[in-house]
Design brief:
The chain is an alpha/beta fold and about 375 residues long. The protein has one domain: Deoxyhypusine synthase (Deoxyhypusine Synthase, 3-Layer(aba) Sandwich). About 45% of the residues lie in helices and about 10% in strands. A six-stranded parallel sheet has the order 6-2-1-7-8-9, sandwiched between helices. A hairpin with a 2-residue loop joins strand 4 and strand 5.
Length: about 375
C-alpha cells in the first residue's frame, strides 16, 4: 500500500477488560500508535518467525541477567524459540550467580556509592551484588573451571559457554536457574561478542600469568556465525539493545556477500528493542533499514521492526506473547551442527567462486 494515501486500520477507542490476556494486550498495542504499536508489531513478527521455522538468534547487550531476565531466555530456549545467542560477557558472568546461589538483591539507585564501597556492595543501577560473597566467589568458580577443564587448543566463545553450561549443570546448586545450562542441554550456541571486555576474560589472567596460553579463534567464530545464516532457509534476529552483539549477528550478511561473495542477502527478519537514537550515530551501527545498504537484511521495507523502549518493559511482553500463542518447536540443536555448517560454507566457497555481487544469488541450504 502507498503510505502516502489515507488508508489503514481504524484506531479503536481502546477499552480494557480485567479478563484480558497477553494476546489481547498485544492486540491493543498493535492497533494504537507510537512505540505501543511497534511493540505489537514486533510481537507478531516474532510469532511469524516461529511459525515459518526461521533460525532465530537472540542478541543481548546491557545488564539483562542481573535483573533476572535469564529466566525469560531459558523459557524461550526450552520452547525452541531461540536457536543461537550472541551476548556480552557480563550477561553470562552475572547469570551464573543465580545457579550457584550467590547473593543478588534489589537495592537502590539514589545512594552514596562511597558508602556502598565501604560496605563491599557493588551496584548495577538499583541491583546490589556482594563483592566477596558473589563476585569473588564467582571468580573462583570460573578460574577453577578454565584451569581444570579447558583444552590447550584454539577455541571459540561458543565452546567456552558450552563448557560453562556443562559445569553449571553438573556442579551448581541451582542449574535450573541458568540459561547457559539450558543452552547446553538444548545445544544452543552462545557466543560472547567481546569476551575480553568482561570478568570472564579477567579470570583467565591468573592462569595466563602461570604460563597457560589461551587462543581465541575469533575468525572461526565469525565464519561459524555466517554459516548458520548460510545453512538456514529463513533467518531472524531478536535484538535486546544494540552494542557489539547486534552487529556481530548482522555482519553475517556482509561476510557472506561482500567478503565471500555468496550473495546470500542477509537476515529475513530483525526485531530490535532499543532506547538509542539514530541521529547521534547511535543504534550500534545503523537503523535496521540502513543495514540493507550493507547487505545485512533482505528487504529494507519488510520484516523489520524497531521498538524504542526500555527492554526491561518490552522484552517480557514480547516473550510472553509468543509463549502464549505459539506451539513449542523442535530444538534445532545448532551447536552439534556447527562443524557441518562450517564445512558446507567452505565447500560452496571453493566450488562456486563468484566474481560479482550482481551475479545470480546462491540458494540457501
Amino acid at each position: 500500500m502507498d503510505p502516502h494515501k489515507f488508508h489503514g486500520k481504524d484506531i479503536p477507542h481502546i477499552k480494557l477488560d480485567p479478563k484480558m490476556t497477553i494476546e489481547d494486550l498485544v492486540e491493543v498495542f498493535s492497533r494504537s500508535g507510537f512505540n505501543g504499536r511497534k511493540l505489537g508489531e514486533a510481537s507478531k513478527l516474532y510469532a511469524k518467525m516461529i511459525k515459518e521455522d526461521a533460525t532465530i538468534c537472540l542478541t543481548l547487550s546491557g545488564a539483562m541477567t542481573p535483573v533476572g531476565f535469564g529466566g525469560i531466555i531459558k523459557s524461550l530456549i526450552e520452547r525452541g524459540f531461540i536457536d543461537w545467542i550472541i551476548t556480552t560477557g557480563a550477561n553470562v558472568y552475572h547469570e551464573d550467580h543465580f545457579a550457584w546461589g550467590l547473593p543478588i538483591k534489589q537495592g537502590h539507585s539514589e545512594v552514596d556509592d562511597m558508602k556502598l564501597f565501604k560496605n563491599e556492595i557493588v551496584r548495577i543501577r538499583d541491583v546490589y551484588i556482594k563483592f566477596y560473597e558473589t563476585l569473588e566467589a564467582e571468580d573462583q568458580i570460573i578460574q577453577k573451571m578454565v584451569g581444570k577443564n579447558f583444552l590447550d587448543k584454539p577455541f571459540t566463545t561458543a565452546e567456552f559457554c558450552n563448557l560453562m553450561g556443562r559445569i553449571t549443570k553438573e556442579k551448581s546448586k541451582y542449574p535450573e536457574k541458568s540459561f547457559i545450562s539450558t543452552a547446553y542441554d538444548y545445544d544452543v550456541p552462545v557466543y560472547i561478542s567481546t569476551i575480553k571486555d568482561s570478568s570472564l576474560a579477567l579470570n583467565l589472567a591468573v592462569q595466563r600469568l602461570q604460563g597457560k596460553i589461551y587462543n581465541l579463534d575469533f575468525v572461526r567464530e565469525i565464519i561459524e556465525q555466517a554459516s548458520i545464516l548460510f545453512n538456514s532457509k529463513k533467518s531472524g534476529i531478536v535484538e535486546i539493545g544494540g552494542g557489539v552483539p547486534k552487529n556481530t549477528a548482522q555482519q553475517t550478511g556482509p561476510l557472506l556477500d561482500q567478503i565471500l561473495r555468496r550473495n546470500n542477502g542477509g537476515q529475513d527478519y530483525i526485531i530490535q528493542i532499543t532506547d538509542a537514537r539514530p541521529d547521534t550515530g547511535g543504534l550500534s551501527g545503523a537503523t535496521l533499514q540502513e543495514g540493507k545498504s550493507w547487505g545485512k537484511v533482505q528487504d529494507a521495507h519488510n520484516g523489520m521492526v524497531t521498538v524504542y523502549a526500555d527492554a526491561t518493559i518490552a522484552f517480557p511482553i514480547l516473550a510472553l506473547y509468543v509463549m502464549s500463542n505459539q506451539k513449542t518447536r523442535k530444538p534445532k540443536r545448532l551447536y552439534k551442527k556447527l562443524d557441518q555448517f562450517y564445512q558446507n560454507l567452505s565447500n560452496d566457497y571453493f566450488k562456486k567462486p563468484l566474481k560479482s555481487k550482481k551475479q545470480k544469488s546462491t540458494k540457501r541450504k
